[in-house]
Amino acid sequence: MNAVLGIAGFLAFLTFGIAQLVAGFVGIEHGMGAGWAWGALIAALMFRFTLPITIGSFFGAMNVWGWHWALAALFAAPGLAFVIPGVLASTFALVKR
Description:
Number of domains: 1
Shape: globular
Helix content: over 70%
């Protein structure tokens, strides 16, 4: 059972990563052209510099796929779902103190 869950988790993360790469490519291509999109994709895969793909995936999901900006932000940077509540909680704790 653990092996099945591990394989399913791996496939889910792989699918999400590929979807982010596609959205990033499409977003950069829509805004700046195909040459910049290929350059960002090569930089992400060869040099592990993923900032252009992350920004492109936000704009790809929002402008090309028509998603709401909040959903596009969570898609592009899913860690924001954990960082923002943590920052708010620590800020409220400081104010309350």
